[in-house]
Specification:
The chain is of the alpha/beta class. It has nine helices and 15 strands. The chain has two domains: 153 residues, 3-Layer(aba) Sandwich (Rossmann fold); 178 residues, Dihydrodipicolinate Reductase, domain 2 (2-Layer Sandwich), CATH 3.30.360. It is 25% helix and 25% strand. The relative contact order is 0.16. This is Aspartate-semialdehyde dehydrogenase (Non-peptidoglycan organisms).
């Protein structure tokens, strides 16, 4: 894509941690160019690089004229986020959301591109229901499930029935650094508000089906989650125990990981990890500091596949929470939308 022909992008919530990560990742993106940034009213008028910050609430008309779609990384009350995202979609802008506000809205897809790209098929239904023309909303799942949901998808042929997962989550998942959260130094907090519920329930939508004008959830496998905050800057590590209905072997599980084919392999999306999943033979890998930046932070790494005396099998997996699990995952969603024709340089104004 020619440099002067890049798709114009807006970022809502540009002053927050995910918004800043979006700006960083999009700086040299081959398809997208950030042309407008917005945040809360108190940040209006400030500058991010050469761009003046607009108000996400008061300047919708201005913002909608400066870009072809927006990334939403707003940090606010869920009801407020829903209202704002719908306001932009009403004005013909696709909204690629990193937020949880619309994850359980019945006609909004929650996309992990390598796993459920077919869920984009609900976009025309969403538009028709709401009277929107070119606008729509999609979102991505929570960062805590990025490490293990792909494994369950890859191992679907072995029919996973029950899963116990413990995630050891970095402080950036709370939008914090050690400077802003010194209490986390040399500390572990065994509770993250809302995280276990998200970890247990969101896979049911990703693995679900579209029926008529909404998603039908699939609650197999049953998932029990423990989510712990650990003193790490970035990277969510997951320890996963799985019971399969079908007999399998370690060799078969590893082979399934290495041979997994997904629709992104043929699309040549700039942010896609190649390969999607990386298996480490070493007994002490993946490690957070060593492996979180695998494939520019978009790779998911797996290791320690071994027998489990209770459920049958267990392993560990790792993903970068602010790249794969947040900003990078949203960018990958936008790239998929471009390839599928849902985002273009021009749109019909309402």
């Amino acid at each position: 894509m020619e440099k002067n022909n890049k798709i114009k992008v807006g970022i809502l919530g540009a002053t927050g941690m995910v918004g800043q990560r979006l700006i960083s990742l999009l700086k040299n993106h081959p398809w997208f160019k950030v042309t407008v940034v917005a945040a809360s009213k108190r940040s209006k008028g400030k500058k991010i690089g050469s761009l003046v910050v607009y108000s996400i609430e008061d300047d919708i008309e201005i913002i909608s004229k400066k870009c072809s779609f927006v990334f939403s990384a707003i940090e606010a009350d869920k009801d407020f986020i829903k209202k704002i995202e719908e306001s932009y979609a009403e004005r013909g802008l696709p909204v690629v959301s990193n937020n949880s506000a619309h994850r359980w809205t019945k006609d909004v897809p929650m996309i992990m591109p390598e796993i459920n790209p077919h869920h984009l098929d609900i976009i025309p239904i969403q538009r028709k229901k709401r009277g929107w023309t070119t606008g729509f909303i999609i979102t991505k799942p929570n960062c805590s499930i990025q490490s293990y949901v792909p494994l369950l998808a890859v191992w679907k042929k072995f029919n996973p029935q029950k899963v116990i997962v413990s995630t050891y989550q970095a402080i950036s998942g709370a939008g914090k650094t050690f400077k802003s959260w010194p209490e986390m130094i040399d500390n572990v907090i065994p509770y993250i508000a809302g995280e276990e519920e998200k970890s247990e329930k969101e896979p049911s939508k990703i693995f679900g089906d579209i029926k008529k004008d909404e998603f039908i959830l699939k609650n197999i496998p049953t998932i029990s989650a423990n989510c712990v905050r650990v003193p790490i800057t970035d990277g969510h590590l997951a320890a996963i125990n799985v019971k399969f209905a079908k007999n399998t072997s370690k060799e078969q599980l590893i082979k399934a990981l290495k041979n997994f084919k997904n629709s992104l392999d043929k699309l040549n999306l700039p942010s896609a990890s190649r390969p999607f999943l990386t298996y480490f033979k070493e007994s002490d890998r993946p490690q957070t500091r060593l492996d979180r930046n695998l494939h520019n932070g978009m790779g998911i790494s797996v290791g320690r596949i071994r027998k489990d005396s209770v459920l049958g099998w267990k392993c560990v997996a790792l993903s970068h929470n602010t790249i794969r699990g947040a900003a990078g995952g949203s960018i990958l969603n936008a790239e998929l939308l471009v390839k599928k024709g849902y985002i273009s340089r021009t749109r019909t104004k309402l």
